User: Fold this.
Amino acid sequence: MKIGFVSLGCPKNQLDTEVMLHEIASKGHEITPDETEADIVIINTCAFIESAKKESIDNILDIAWLKKHHKLKGLIVTGCMAERYGKEILEEFPEVDAVLGVGSIHNICDAVEQVAANAGKKRKKSEPDCRYFSHEDKDTVRLGGDRILTTPEYTAYLKISEGCDNRCTYCAIPNIRGKFRSRPMDELVKEAKELDSLGVRELTVIAQDTTRYGIDLYGEYCLDKLLHRITEETNIPWIRVLYCYPDKITDRLIEEMKNNPRI
Assistant:
């Protein structure tokens, strides 16, 4: 089938889209950039602030229009809004055929297959709702994975952790994305080397809290060590770091940034 994707929100969400793209393509489906050509469209939503929720809802309504007036057979909603308001989405949007929380991104192919199997079937009010719904534990979802890059060929993102433990009073991210979990350093360096081999010249290291990296795996903040290894083991000339919390910026990290002209 032809599968279309709409990816909303931050670069961290974009990386989840890239992982889902790879899993979809590995099953033999064709990825199309044109939603009007798609059999199924997947919207990876954001729900961080009110304007982001409105953008997600507007996109759901826009794609739902294609089900009524075009060839679209199925609409799948994933991402942060699907995690935060999963059941409500099914109740409020009968056009949505599947909802996957952030812990269920690796179930995307199962969702596509079920949506395709149910396409065109009309459910009677007396029948149970057979639409696909998956909200697996966001704190145990497998991090990383092969992906199809959606950035220009010279740049890419590297997500070094998931979730957040800061619990800022204004922020819903811990409830949406779960507790803080770092990815192993060897795994990240290997991925950076692969991106280097693909021609990436600018690598942006991202997480909800990059400065916390490593505390859960190694018992100390290790962002400086990770950045040092990436620059030692790749030829990527520009490395950027996003989402640093000032209270966790160590003297070692300052020293690495001072002495490393590629950061």
In short: The chain has a mean pLDDT of 94. DSSP finds ten helices and eleven strands in the chain.
